[in-house]
Amino acid sequence: MSPRPALTAVLVAVLAAGTVSSGAQSPPAAPYPLDNVPDKMPFDIPYGAPISLERAQAAIAAAVAEARKHDWKLDVAVVDAGGNLVAFQRMDGAQLASIQIAEHKARASATFRRETKVFEIGLQQNGYSYIMTLDGAIASRGGIPLVEGGKLIGAIGCSGGTGSQDEVACKAGVAAIIK
To answer: Mind giving me the DSSP string for 79-108?
Structure first.
């Protein structure tokens, strides 16, 4: 038997299996959740004075201390309310790709005024694929806004571990400067 008929049989079987499983998806339940019109604007946090370098460095120091307790190697970024980088630290051995990802998480958290975990949940649990079309969004936890006195002063982003590790380190950074 030549390889061509065997390959064709495998392809037909794969396509048939894909057709059966794709038919199992059902459309969203009515009413479609995105058709809901909230009374108030979600994540409507007013902007405050930008975070100072000293406080940004304190948040990073706390995030890095938390990471060291667990032997996590992270990159940590703090941005102001406009998403501009204020401070950054790369721990020894942290993966290079996470430099930009930590900054991206912080910037997305500040500019969208919400935790990046919101995008992760929206995409993974709720199937809101439109999130992938939003410029600057990142659907990975580890970006948390810094809100003081009800006003956004910046955001912190961590990357290099799992999303949950990044989130734990970020929360330590927030707790160190926001009382």
So the answer is: EETTS-EEEEEE-TT--THHHHHHHHHHHH
φ/ψ of 170, rounded to 5, equals -60, -45
* Residue-wise DSSP of 107-150: HHHHHHTS-THHHHHHHHTT--GGGGGSTT---SS-EEEEEETT
Buried b (16+ CB within 10 A) or exposed e, 112-133: bbbbbbbbbebbeeeeeeebee
Question: pLDDT (tens digit, 9 = 90+) per residue, 118-169?
Answer: 999 999 999 999 999 999 999 999 999 999 999 999 999 999 999 999 999 9
Domains of the chain, each with CATH number or no CATH: 53-177 (3.30.450.150)
CB atoms within 10 A of CB 146: 28
Task: Identify which of 49, 37, 51, 36 has the alpha carbon closest to the alpha carbon of residue 144.
Answer: 51
What does each C-alpha distance from 43 to 46, 76, 158 come to in angstroms? 9, 24, 21
Terminal C-alpha separation, the chain: 74
Q: Which of 176, 175, 165, 178 is nearest to 75 (CA)?
A: 165
What's the pLDDT at 114? 97
Structure tokens at 93: 């051995």
